Amino acid sequence: xxxxxxxxxxxxxxxxxxxxxxxxxxxxxxxxxxxxxxxxxxxxxxxxxxxxxxxxxxxxxxxxxxxxxxxxxxxxxxxxxxxxxxxxxxxxxxxxxxxxxxxxxxxxxxxxxxxxxxxxxxxxxxxxxxxxxxxxxxxxxxxxxxxxxxxxxxxxxxxxxxxxxxxxxxxxxxxxxxxxxxxxxxxxxxxxxxxxxxxxxxxxxxxxxxxxxxxxxxxxxxxxxxxxxxxxxxxxxxxxxxxxxxxxxxxxxxxxxx
Length: 258
Hints:
By secondary structure, this protein is mainly α.
């Protein structure tokens, strides 16, 4: 029951965020979009530190290793992994740039879904790694910690779901279709989490590396996509405020509940 709950919570956040399109009358307000992007960035940064990097360091110490080595190596590998994946998969950045070259072969809305789906891969991995750690036991990671991370990512997924469905509606797509695209972009998370759990159960000794790997991948998404979009154009301070709010909320959740 707990495992199913942890797997479902992040996807539910995406679905609820995508459902905001049904409350939308006209185009998405630019200031609201910046706030949501910043908020998502803050949540992901805090989750990377408290739910992934710190447990990675603590676990390595308990295993008798030099505690900073798995965190450093795994983090850098996560960055490299997303960098390679980002270059191989054609997708639009969240500012819905116009497709060029190979990108022109895909419909604009499909590419936007691919962009958010790509972002969801490290989030699914993060949930899977932490959940596996709680199931294995003797790792210092509790089921409450796994649930906290799932809730934090669900909170972060809410604005992401809105960011994908509402612009699609603004471009003339029906509300139902825009909602479906937004919701389906999150399905990769429980799938990624399950695959990660299956792999982690075999490679327990490298769990600290997997935790920091997921952290690096999440930070890449924040630095490459979310923060630049929240700071583009006017009113960049709104995105900064969103980062602060998201960071503090996720930090409180993780410390209080994890």
